[in-house]
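Incident log, structure service

09:12 report received: a user says their structure output differs between two submissions of the same chain.
09:20 pulled the input from the user's history:
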Amino acid sequence: MTCCRIGLLITFALVILVAPLAADAPQPAKVSRIGVLSLVTPRSEGAQWFSQALHDLGWVEGQNLAFEIRSADRDLDRLPALAAELVHSKVDLIVAGSLHEIRAAQHATRTIPIVMAGTGDPVGAGFATSLARPGGNITGLSTVQADLTGKWLELLKEAAPGVSRVAVLGDAASMVTRALVGDQERVSRAFGVRLHMLEVADPSALEPAFAAITNAQVDAIMVLPSPRFHASHQRIVDLVTRSHLPAIYPARWYVEAGGLLSYDRSRAEGVRRLAIYIDKILKGTKPADLPVEQPTKFELVINLKTAQALGLTIPPTLLFQADEVIR
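09:34 re-ran on a clean worker, output below:
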């Protein structure tokens, strides 16, 4: 028998012996890749909640899960290119929060699932055919925050009963701002207040906006939700404090920074629900078959130190409603 034939026999024998071992060996888990498209850098607290919520469902970063994060650093014009990057990197799913992030992702792909972290009106924005049956590659959470305007005014008037003129600070590029502008008359009539709308096109215009608020001689301020505002929340709170007016905000971190009141969907609950959408889609459910969810749990946060500085006495009925009181 020639050396060549002996070598072939040995190779054949090794293949026969090794093949069963290879079949029995544990195969590496498939790593699912989540793209995150964000106008601003995600807050560390929210990122931790997100990772924990996914971990509770069996998704562990570095084992069966990887993240591709793209932040536009507050520049709306960068979002389309960043969305295209995520599509090019072949992520399995894209998470997007604001109207602009979702729209950029939608323009970049009609096949990769997109999960909304929360936007005011996904049907009106063209992201879903209906809340019950989205019908495309986009589903997730709706904040429905335009409909919360009445509740914000109700809480503001309960904390400061003399309020009759309210300055409304909105992001000119926000759908929530546009919805409120269109609903100004109804809200004013229902709550007996006059709304003074101030739309800011860029955070650099905040100081002039607050100068206009002073000139308008309003009694209180309502800050509408906006990712760009959230990124400048401390600056906004400082400007409100300087005006010595009561204000209600769309997220708790404003109140933690010294604001008076905030009323918003529960962020922790929202992150948990977001993780459930991701889990279902990564396991094979189509976005078109997952209804868009509206928030059911909200949080009221009150800063008593700020109330005292403004000379306000928060009524016990309002304190009883609060999920957290900062003293």
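09:41 both user submissions now match this output. Likely a transient worker issue. Closing.
09:42 reviewer note: The longest helix spans residues 3-24. The chain has two domains: 32-144+266-289, 146-265+298-326.
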